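Section 3.1 - Work completed
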Amino acid sequence: MAQPQIFNIQKFSIHDGDGIRTTIFFKGCPLRCKWCHNPESQRFSPELLFYSERCVGCGACKAVCPHDAINERMEPDRTKCVNCGVCVDACHYTAREMAGKFIPVREVVRIALQDTMFYEESGGGVTLSGGEVMVQDLDYLLDLLKQLKRRGIHVAIDTCGDVPFERFEKVLPYVDVFLYDLKLMDSKKHEYYIGVPNERILENLKKLDERHAAIQIRIPLIEGVNCDEENIAATLAFLKQIHPVKVNLLPYHNTGKSKYERLQQGYADEEMATPSKEWMEATRKRFEDEGYQTKIGG
């Protein structure tokens, strides 16, 4: 398997598990959620981001591009661009950026350890996210997990769950909690909005629970997609089969829309909207009344 690509290391994160955390974002995901906030995380290889608002049209990038992949407006021609990054080095105005690079495990651990004091004071730690960390090279992932645990760092994995369960079995001894996404209960709707059916995702969640893994459920809620009564009722019925520690309800937002523009991709926001605060609060209370420790947000 190719070397894992990391596109962001976010310090002082408070939305990716308990306490103050350092979140490591890996590139590559088996899903294609229509509302994905990090479209640059979907492919496994590095990608060029173009910030048109920063470009002054100086032509320095076009002059050095070895593949003639920049048009007269200085935009990347995605049919020719191979994401080599030569134009990034030539740009004096930070209008071009590469998303994704290989970072050795020892360097990731070094960065994570810089904030140990904050983890200890807040009950935080390190969260491995994406993309999807569970599809990354297992040797790399296990090495990273073992080194973090050896140093007493609390580790969370944020996962969509759509991987062979054998991968979960490999990492189980080194993970303190799984932040497990639960998006849609109807498999056909799941495939339409997310790109894959949900049977393996649900089965893996049940298997994790059977192995007494600590689980926090994360449910993105998008008006027009999964806020209907049928889906909420089915979600609550499914959760009765497992024992999540917490449930986080995540209202939809479109703050990632600009990233699609930087990748020159379309964004399907016309069929999605943010649920009202009143509906979110009523839904939070509904989950809480069923016995789940529930909050709105990460």
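Second construct:
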Amino acid sequence: MADFKQIAQLFEDRVENVDYYETRAHLRAKNELLEILDGETKQLIFLVGEPGSGKSLFLYNLPKILDEKYHIIRFNTPFFEPVDFIKHLIRRKESEVGEFALEQLISQAVELYKESPTIVAIDEAQLLSKDMIELLRILADSKAFWFIMAMHRHESAKILREPQFSSRPHRIIELGLLEYDEAREYIAKELLKAGAYNLEEELSKKQAKTIYKFSKGNFRDTKKLLHRMFLLMDAALKLGKNEFTKPSRCLVTMAAIDGGLIDS
């Protein structure tokens, strides 16, 4: 019998210590990014998409995506003050931070980075303060950095209307959703990697379609549903409810309800 709890862990919502599954949307974003980096000057790049489309996963895998050709400085959360942000950039160059005002610290950082292929990647950028937005505008104008700012699609429009961004060179890369066949391929790949060959066969085309219907092609919700389903199967096994130890529409529906993807 398969270890359902261990299989459930394959579908946990995390970006570290997981194999990078390159969806078509991610491949398109990668190609767009490479074209911009190869053909344009340093500027702001906005990576936008629905929550759960894989923006954080994309940023986490930037070194692999870009074949280690760029120095990546990644911020998972944007809760920092301008002075602390600049000091962090300076320290990343193993340089001593001067006891200067912000304007002088900016000049120090620009001097350190102006000749280096550095990308500053900021996740959840819709949460940036106005002071930080102004600082990023100044740094982008210096042409010392590339910035990739990941944010939710519905919140990006407001930020992009800000004069700091609308009046300056910037590019927008949009991450779309999973297509049905690649969602099914992703599920099969993870199960086969775990050696769960019977489960991969038992997860019928019809059940895969139900998973896709409930998750609506959202990568995070797909993983959430599968994670909950295999936890339910683990609980059923321990309770001797053998009828719930095989993938079924009933289990998929229960997992979707448990994950808040559909109403009970």
